[in-house]
């Protein structure tokens, strides 16, 4: 399976296999870094049936019976516990219950207590094929408090040879009692060179421009480019904001726009502090000196305002009005002008 793993996850995976031996691991990192793929690859390596010394760096062989069952998601000693909304991404059939859940209903993003209880029954069984069992829960922060509490005791004292992998985007959103029972494993930001090479191999033009604009996260960069926000779009973006051209940005999904505006503010702050911009290297320095104190105050305040908007950015609030407000507010801050009313 390691063949399907993104190249930048290979080194962290080898390292984790060599050094992380706790029975409960908390793998955390932004969704874009692939914590789910990483956790599955980890589970596969533990369940691989080829003797360890015959495998490259302890990674799964990808050929044995155990590996095949993991790849087919039918290994009897592996349970993937994900919300409905992520079943497909996890390689699971869309509908677990077989009740033919209605297509009109949005798949749930929560991990419900019933699902946790069912997984705990799995934990109680003796391993049927491998020397141990693996329960993978992702994203762990989507367990509500009841579900998380149901897990606690078993997480502390599993009944048999057992490994838990909790994938997580935001560890601070987890109950401290869950966090404290796990060994933490942070997925690093993908190093720039392999990320660029990978994007170029996907056929992306001017990959560096898109990668920078997307915070150095290659999966996000590729997704953005495929949705039309390619290098050209990102080159134009700072000027569009500076000119208040919200019509040009009208089609952007709000979460993407909010994040891009945040990055633009950060870059202007960097300029004000005499540093090079990071996300938008072509960002022009403002003509004439801006009052640095006022600029910093305006940008800091606007950054906080954007963060608050980001929390609601996937709600269907009136999009054209929202884009207009976001762009105008950011534009004023970037030029250290008074905020629009
Ligand atoms: Zn194998």
From TrEMBL:
GO terms for molecular function: DNA-directed DNA polymerase activity. Its EC number is 2.7.7.7. The keyword Transferase applies. Keywords: Nucleotidyltransferase, Transferase. Gene3D superfamilies: P-loop containing nucleotide triphosphate hydrolases. The keyword Transferase applies. It comes from the Bacteria. Residues 90-109 are annotated as: Disordered. InterPro entries: DNA_Rep/Repair_Clamp_Loader (IPR050238), P-loop_NTPase (IPR027417). This is DNA polymerase-3 subunit delta. It comes from Sphaerotilus uruguayifluvii.
């Amino acid at each position: 399976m390691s063949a399907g793993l993104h190249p930048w996850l290979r080194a962290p995976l080898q390292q984790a296999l060599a050094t992380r031996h706790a029975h409960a691991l908390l793998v955390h990192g932004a969704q874009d870094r692939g914590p789910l793929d990483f956790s599955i690859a980890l589970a596969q390596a533990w369940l691989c049936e080829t003797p360890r010394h015959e495998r490259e760096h302890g990674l799964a062989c990808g050929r044995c019976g155990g590996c095949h069952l993991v790849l087919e998601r039918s290994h009897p000693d592996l349970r993937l516990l994900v919300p409905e909304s992520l079943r497909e991404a996890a390689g699971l059939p869309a509908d677990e219950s077989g009740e033919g859940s209605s297509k009109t209903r949005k798949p749930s993003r929560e991990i419900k207590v019933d699902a946790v209880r069912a997984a705990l029954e799995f934990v109680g069984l003796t391993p049927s094929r491998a020397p141990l069992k693996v329960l993978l829960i992702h994203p762990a922060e989507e367990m509500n408090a009841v579900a998380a509490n149901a897990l606690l005791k078993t997480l502390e004292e599993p009944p048999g040879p057992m490994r838990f992998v909790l994938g997580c985007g935001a560890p601070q959103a987890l109950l401290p009692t869950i966090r404290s029972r796990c060994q933490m494993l942070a997925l690093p930001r993908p190093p720039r060179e392999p990320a660029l090479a990978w994007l170029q191999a996907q056929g992306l033009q001017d990959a560096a421009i898109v990668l920078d604009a997307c915070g150095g996260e290659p999966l996000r960069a590729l997704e953005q480019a495929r949705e039309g926000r390619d290098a050209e779009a990102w080159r134009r973006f700072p000027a569009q904001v500076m000119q208040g051209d919200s019509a040009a940005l009208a089609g952007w999904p709000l979460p993407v726009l909010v994040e891009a505006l945040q990055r633009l503010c950060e870059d202007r702050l960097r300029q004000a502090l005499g540093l090079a911009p990071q996300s938008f290297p072509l960002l022009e320095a403002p003509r004439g000196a801006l009052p640095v104190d006022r600029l910093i105050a305006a940008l800091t305040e606007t950054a906080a305002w954007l963060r608050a908007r980001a929390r609601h950015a996937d709600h269907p609030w009136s999009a054209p009005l929202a884009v207009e407000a976001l762009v105008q507010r950011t534009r004023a801050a970037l030029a250290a002008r008074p905020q629009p009313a």
